[in-house]
Specification:
Blueprint: E1 11-13, H1 17-41, E2 46-48, E3 60-69, E4 72-79, E5 82-85, E6 92-95, E7 98-101, H2 116-143, H3 146-151, H4 155-169, H5 181-204, H6 207-212, H7 215-220, H8 223-251, H9 253-261, E8 264-266, H10 269-273
Antiparallel strand pairs: 1-8, 2-3, 3-4, 4-5, 6-7
Helix pairs in contact: 1-2, 5-8, 8-9
InterPro entries: Cyt_b561_bac/Ni-Hgenase, Di-haem_cyt_TM, Hydrogenase_cytochrome
Protein name: HupC
Organism: Aureimonas ureilytica
């Protein structure tokens, strides 16, 4: 199957320095935010909807824990009232050949051992770096027109979306001078919906923020609901990153990585004629 169009077109300047710099800063931030966030989550591996949580409330939608079945330790994950055996993956993790009650494997958290305080320090540090990077990207993209040219979807992008989705489904990946419709909508969703929502829900979980702006609790339906939204958006970002990496590999990793390192990229031959 042909993955891309002919690639012997010209090499063009695709990404400005600001775009490349913020891209790699986001990679670092999201990596440490994910692993430190899971460290924090282990302190209370449950998700709720509403203002409150605890044994007196029946509002849990996710719970990761361990129990005993026939005298053996097993990992049990409950999701919307259904229970799943997740031994070895979640709840009960193998350590030196012995199962231990542990929410996540050690390699999936920062630090690798149980240390809530350090996890919070790492998480908050990279959270503010992420905020600063997002602001830097926004200012830079307004100046170099990356936002208006490549990110903001237009009517023609919406109209061309079905054919672009079909091309991706058939692995017909193009190298254009600007982003395609699916890229625009995906990046717009991440930059203007997912990341701001992560930041807002993260702030809503802060007691200091609640005291300064108590309306945030009403906006998200309570601290526990904000925490659930925060966790859900994290999963969506992980999915986005996984698909993004897959597309880079399928489209030609050398050309794609060069565009984010040097700013230069070889486009399809028909792009030269356009």
């Amino acid at each position: 199957m042909k993955l891309t169009a002919e690639r012997d077109g010209p090499i063009i300047r695709r990404h400005a320095l600001t775009t490349r710099l913020t891209h790699w800063l986001w990679v670092i931030c999201l990596f440490f935010l994910l692993l430190s966030g899971l460290q924090i989550f282990m302190a209370r591996p449950d998700l709720y909807i509403g203002q409150q949580s605890g044994f007196a409330f029946d509002n849990s939608i996710l719970s990761i824990g361990a129990g005993y079945q026939n005298g053996e330790l097993v990992g049990v994950t409950r999701l919307f009232g259904s229970s799943f055996d997740t031994t070895g993956w979640l709840g009960a993790i193998g350590n030196a050949g012995t199962l231990q009650p542990q929410t996540f494997p050690s390699w999936l958290t920062v630090p690798s051992y149980r240390d809530l305080a350090t996890g919070r320090v790492v998480h908050f540090f990279f959270a503010w770096v992420l905020v600063g990077t997002l602001l830097l990207w926004l200012v830079g993209s307004l100046i170099n027109r990356h936002l208006s040219r490549d990110i903001l979807p237009r009517g023609r992008d919406v109209a061309a979306l079905p054919s672009d989705v079909a091309d991706h489904a058939r692995l017909r990946l193009h190298h254009r001078r600007t982003y395609g419709p699916l890229q625009k909508l995906s990046y717009f969703g991440v930059l203007f919906v997912a990341l701001p929502l992560m930041i807002a829900t993260g702030l809503t979980m802060s007691p200091g923020m609640n005291a300064w702006a108590p309306w945030t609790l009403d906006l998200f339906g309570g601290r526990q609901t904000a925490r659930t939204i925060h966790f859900t958006v994290m999963l969506l970002l992980v999915l986005f990153v996984a698909v993004h990496i897959a597309m880079v590999l399928l489209a030609g990793p050398f050309n794609e990585l060069r565009s984010m390192v040097t700013g230069r990229m070889r486009v399809d031959r028909e792009e030269d004629a356009a």
